[in-house]
Amino acid sequence: MRLYSKYILPKLIHAACSGESNALxxxxxxxxxxxxxxxxxxxTGLNLSYYxxxxxxxxxxxDPSPQITKLAQQAAxxxxxxxxxxxxxxEEIPLDDASVDTVLMTYTLCSIPDTVAALQQMxxxxxxxxxxxxxxxxxxxxxxxxxxxxxxxxxxxxxxxGCHLNRDIPQLIEQGGFVLENQHQGYIPGWRxxxxxxxxxxxxx
Length: 205
Prior knowledge:
The protein has 205 residues and is α/β, with parallel strands linked by helices. It contains 7 helices and 7 strands. The protein has a single domain, classed as 3-Layer(aba) Sandwich (Rossmann fold).
């Protein structure tokens, strides 16, 4: 499983997250970012080409997997703004309080172990008036789809690097200390248990 996580999983995640349906979602949210941006779960750098270079000063990408961020180096070199990658040496994001204008999170909250603690850290590093911009898949509204999400969840999590199919994204964001704004939700094309999306913005409460 260690070899799978190190060599195979990064490429599978890149392939799964680079489809056209996901790209359309990224186009909706990533251009909203401005100023100094902290991207949570930057992964292979799929969002870098969607930032508005007229609005963004710099991007700091956080990801726990050095194997995955290696795949983002080329995209970072081609970006028209500064891109820095940092790891997670502990539970805290290694940035100062009130140091970023935007926190961006796309298809990341599904695999963070302690979601509330992570969101509290995101709120800590946001400047007053800053925004959390998010797009995540999560719990579907229909009972039959939720049943499949629950049944498939354990196996999906082992194969998908800890990804959860049925997290209540709005509730988690609120539990992390944010106030939801401009929230949208709905299915995007794809495998139904993993295609119900939540996206929008939130501010630290």
